[in-house]
Fold this sequence. Notes:
Elements: H1 7-18, H2 21-32, H3 37-69, H4 77-83, H5 85-101
Helix pairs in contact: 3-4, 3-5
Amino acid sequence: MKEGKTEEDATNKSIVDFGDMREIRNNLMQAAQPKSAKKDISRYKNHLWFSICGSVLIIGLFLFINFYYTPNIIWFVYPTFAILWWPLGTLFAFLRIKKNEV
């Protein structure tokens, strides 16, 4: 506008020079991300698989103990709910990191 252009022309020129808001936001998000984003995703993927496998093994242990020692009382369900928070938390962390990458 200092060059004598109308507001609309100045806006269009700034969009051409800088890009639209989506491009600016994507560029800023990419600049804010650490360089090792791929490494973070693979690390969180490993954490997710470890938590799933560990939870399955622990729940299997409780299931075995329940049916071997007290087959008339089914109590393994209660610690199962507590154990399932572990892979659920790592799943949400993995999805958050994956969403921020895109």
